[in-house]
Amino acid sequence: MSTLSDAELLRNIAAGDEAALRQLYERHAGWLLLRLNRRCGSQDLVAGALQDTFVAVWQSAGRFRGEGEVAAWLWGISIRRLISALRGHPAADPLGDDVVGAAVPVVNSAEDELLRGVEYGDVGRALRTLPPELRATLQATVIDGLTTKEAAVLLGIPQGTVKSRLRVAKSRLRDQLMPGRTS
Amino acid sequence: MSPQIAVLDGVTKSYGGAEVLHRTDLGFDRGVIGLLGPNGAGKSTMLRLLATAMPPTSGRIVVSDHVVTDGSPDRTAARRRLSYLPQEVGIPRRMTSFAFLDYIAVLKEWKDTGARHREVNRVLGLVGLEDRRTKRVSALSGGQRRRLALAQALMGDPDLVVLDEPTTGLDPEQRASLRGILSSYADRGAVLLATHQTEDVSALCDRVIILDDGRIRFDGSVASLIGLADGQVWIGSEVNAGALSSWRTGTGEIRSLGGVPAAGSRPAEPAVEDAYLLVRSANLIGQPR
Amino acid sequence: MTWHLGPELLDRYSDGDLDLARQSAVETHLLACADCRQLTSAKAPQDLLTDIWQGVQIATARPRMPWPLRLLRKLGLAETDAVILSASSSLYRPWLLSLVGAFVIGVGGTMMPATEQRSLYLLFAPLLPAITVAAAYDATDPIRELAAATPFSKLRIALLRTATVVAIALPVVLLAGLALPFVGADAFAWLLPSLTLTLLALTLLTWWTASVTAWVVAVLWLTVVGILRSAQQLSAVDTPFAQLAFAVAALLALAALAIRLTTHHAPGGYA
Ligand SMILES: [Zn+2]
């Protein structure tokens, strides 16, 4: 059996290779499903989002630009599919306390510079001092790399609230992690 | 005795005055039934008649308790219980594999879209074409097209599966997997297959029918067919005088079918093919031609 | 990478009972580590993954209906009927054939002497629906034998195809006739001959393949137009007598089709 890289698989998928799509699914569908489960309690919505993700990959594999991890690209698609599914179900359960966490940011925006290069433990400890709604906001924007608009849908709160919570959360973290630094 | 799944009752078929199937009475129960015979023996005609793809010239055909020769409603009812693979299927080339099966599934009255698509997907997997769903028929190889045609015959849960040379164009692995699939259908219904492959018959069939010139020459179990060739197959260093056929085996010895055993030769285990050739030559059982 | 996900961490992540900081740490690690992704994926419910994969397979392979069929679906056409129609491509082909036919009549007509314009129109206009009905059968002719052994009503297929063809071809040819100045009084005279030829084509389709049927009908009509023209009687087509004759012929063709249908023959094969 060939062991093609993810990017090579995507290239074959773009050329209409159904076996390559199956291989990519076998590699990635499992962890994507589990991670989506951590974001939304509705099995139907999660399953739908995962299916849509691979249908989208089939239709637009050629748009992967070959920079960065395919895994991150797939996650980006699937979390956004989940968000559009949530848009269709405004009453779907918003994220609770249990889906909040902390880690190194995966987006490279300048304002997240703060969280870079910090030991997981420190961030974790700092995050645990935040109230759940602030943690959820941080996770959606920083860990999942969503825009404030997308985060608003995922969390089921107005966009303005996301922005203000984000502001508060960041300034509190800054105070805890880098007490000496002035903003 | 439970009612049979399919019955031919005094069935004949003529084309423009020429009789291609002489008055035939046959009944089919559950299991795999192999139909052997040379080209033009009437195998395809018999299968077409059973599949209701054409009407008989005379006689009565019953499938799943519906008398298909009675009229349209009965025929339609019978068609809901059978599936058919013709010898040649010219699948429209611009269709994709999935679209072709989807169309046939609609013709087979799969009304619910979701269930129909799942069934199409299932049979695509059964014949090993799951990675060719979106390909147009024109992009498929000959063997793949044959498997696609076969896939439509595997849809649903038919009582009667009629297959005209299903193993043509399949490689040994695919043939083995088809045998497995067909035996699972045979648990529930009758699987009738015409073939030129005597190995398929010995590997798969509960019953063999040999047709020649529109007439039944043999009808019985595989064991009783092979039994006809008992004592007729010999292996030795010389060809039997008057042998029906002979060839040099892999060990360098000569295997002879029929004839007078040559000096020093010993009897060998007969195979379906030996019995088939004997029945065809008709010199053993002496049936009138 | 200095650390990987241990079995306990994997279990707790997949069960969703990791503390928040660790969960995010796990997720960040997963994005960068293929080995741990593989271990994590094994924890996902495999039955659900198989179901979702089946959904992916169907969604990527399901044929997309052409927009006119999607429109008809919105107007209440059954989904299975739409599949029948899209398999015979009986929407865009009649549309194309009618447009090409109308174009030929229009362009050809203006380039011809006035006396020939009429025969051109009377030759093409009535044939178009009949030929397009036959063309709808052409796509599925190779699987005639296979289709014959299926329970779907052959009559329904014939009606579906004919109705769509007529619904498309009729307005196109009619509009072309009304728009072309040289057609004049013939703009409606072709309707009854066309009905006759369409019914005849459907009847012949119970015996022959689509391409044979199309040729037979075309040659037949060509002969009729040729005879009328050489007898200088083309103008007789829109007389009440000729129209009555066409009406009678249409009824005869209808009767022949009905007889074929009741004796288990349908357009496209054994009913
Ligand atoms: Zn790792």
Automatic annotation (TrEMBL), chain A:
Keyword ATP-binding: no
InterPro entries: RNA_pol_sigma-70-like, RNA_pol_sigma-70_dom, RNA_pol_sigma70_r2, RNA_pol_sigma70_r4_t2, RNA_pol_sigma_r2, RNA_pol_sigma_r3/r4-like, WH-like_DNA-bd_sf
Keywords: Sigma factor, Transcription, Transcription regulation
Domain RNA polymerase sigma factor 70 region 4 type: 123-173
All copies of domain RNA polymerase sigma-70 region, residue ranges: 24-88
UniProt GO MF annotations: DNA binding; sigma factor activity
A biological process from GO: DNA-templated transcription initiation
A Pfam family of this chain: Sigma70_r4_2
Family, similarity comment: Belongs to the sigma-70 factor family. ECF subfamily.
NCBIfam families, per database record: sigma70-ECF
Name this protein carries in UniProt: RNA polymerase sigma factor
Lineage, highest ranks first: Bacteria, Bacillati, Actinomycetota, Actinomycetes, Propionibacteriales
From TrEMBL, chain B:
Residue ranges constituting the ABC transporter domain according to the UniProt record: 6-238
Gene3D superfamilies in the record: P-loop containing nucleotide triphosphate hydrolases
Keywords: ATP-binding, Nucleotide-binding, Transport
Entries under SUPFAM superfamilies matching the protein: P-loop containing nucleoside triphosphate hydrolases
PROSITE patterns assigned: ABC_TRANSPORTER_1 (PS00211), ABC_TRANSPORTER_2 (PS50893)
Example of a GO MF term: ATP binding
Entry keyword annotation includes Chaperone: no
Similarity-based family: Belongs to the ABC transporter superfamily.
PANTHER family: ABC TRANSPORTER, ATP-BINDING PROTEIN (PTHR43335)
Designated name of the protein: ATP-binding cassette domain-containing protein
Organism ancestry: Bacteria, Bacillati, Actinomycetota, Actinomycetes, Propionibacteriales
Automatic annotation (TrEMBL), chain C:
InterPro entries named among the record's database cross-references: Anti_sigma_zinc_sf (IPR041916)
Protein name: Uncharacterized protein
Annotated TM spans: 95-114, 120-137, 158-181, 187-205, 212-229, 241-259
Signal sequence segment: none
Keywords linked to the UniProt accession: Membrane, Transcription, Transcription regulation, Transmembrane, Transmembrane helix
Domain of life, source organism: Bacteria
Record has Zinc as a keyword: no
